[in-house]
Specification:
Helices cover 6% and strands 50% of the residues. With 242 residues, it is mainly beta. The chain has a single domain, classed as Jelly Rolls, CATH 2.60.120. Strands 1, 3, 4, 5, 6, 9, 14, 15, 16 and 18 form a 10-stranded mixed β-sheet that branches. The two termini are 28 Å apart. 39% of the residues are buried. The protein binds 2-acetamido-2-deoxy-beta-D-glucopyranose (2 copies). One 2-acetamido-2-deoxy-beta-D-glucopyranose binds next to strand 13. One of its GO terms (molecular function) is hydrolase activity, hydrolyzing O-glycosyl compounds. It comes from Cylindrobasidium torrendii FP15055 ss-10. InterPro entries: Beta-glucanase-like, ConA-like_dom_sf.
Length: 242
């Protein structure tokens, strides 16, 4: 037995810490807050409302519904689009900071709309300043997912992968590891490696994890005249190291 003790310690030191468990939407308030970290508005025509956020059976459902007479009528965020939808966004309570002492896996399974004017996302963005931004899932109204890493607003790595339009669930994952002061991000879809991107100076910078259904903006317009649904399940964040 005495030979097992050092092995157990070594395994313990390397074990993954579960930051967000795959059933987190069954205990929403423990792991998630409503809306974006900064509020209800961003750079599309959707304004987030609690009524559009639903959880059940381990699944998050965000619904965008056409709205009329929104108050105020335009988004508070640049470029101040007219608000046309009530929609849903959530962000994780726990922030993600990649350092040389850890690495992260950020995983989820998504049923994502791809119609013109629908702009769902699963992404990391800076807690203070900007960037970092890493888009693990970003669908801009076409049958593609965009993986993006922003060094600046104009220096952006983008890899597009085909995405089915039938609303079937597919998994996305980003594995983030420090590379000096930068962060290396390996992107996967359905457990298949797709791309590596590097974020300049992202090491040590805290990031929020956001799941949102924004509308129009980068995904084109006009958006749908009926309801749009975006679902996420088995979202899981693990950290190796400290
Ligand atoms: C962002 O910066 C990293 C680190 O310097 C570099 O490896 C990467 O190529 C840059 N991305 C783009 C799109 O230039
Ligand atoms: C909207 O904001 C996101 C997140 O910061 C950014 O990636 C994107 O470039 C912005 N798009 C437009 C059209 O403003």
């Amino acid at each position: 037995m005495k030979y097992f003790a050092p092995l157990a310690l070594a395994v313990g030191a390397l074990a993954d810490v579960t930051v967000i468990p795959s059933d987190s939407f069954n205990s929403f308030g423990t792991y998630w807050n409503n809306f974006y970290p900064w509020g209800t508005d961003h750079n599309g025509s959707g304004r987030m409302a609690a009524s559009q956020i639903k959880t059940g059976s381990g699944t998050l459902t965000l619904v965008a519904s056409p709205t009329s007479n929104p108050s105020p009528p335009t988004s508070s965020a640049d470029p101040h689009l007219a608000i046309k939808y009530a929609s849903g966004a959530v962000h994780a309570k726990e922030q993600i900071t990649v350092t040389d002492a850890n690495s992260y896996s950020v995983y989820g399974e998504f049923s994502a709309p791809t119609a013109v004017g629908t702009w769902p996302a699963f992404w990391l963005t800076a807690v203070s300043g900007w960037p970092p931004e890493v888009d693990i899932g970003e669908w801009k109204g076409t049958a593609e997912n965009w993986y993006n890493t922003f060094n600046t607003s104009s220096v952006v790595a983008t890899t597009r992968v085909a995405w089915p339009t039938d609303l079937s669930f597919h998994s996305l994952e980003a594995r983030l590891t420090a590379a000096g002061s930068d962060v290396k991000i390996d992107f996967y879809m359905d457990d298949t490696f797709k791309a590596t991107q590097y974020g300049k100076g992202f090491a040590g910078a805290a990031m929020w994890l956001i799941i949102n259904l924004q509308m129009e903006g980068s995904s084109g317009s006009p958006g749908p005249t009926g309801e749009t649904t975006y679902q996420a399940r088995n979202v899981k964040v693990t950290r190796s190291g400290s």
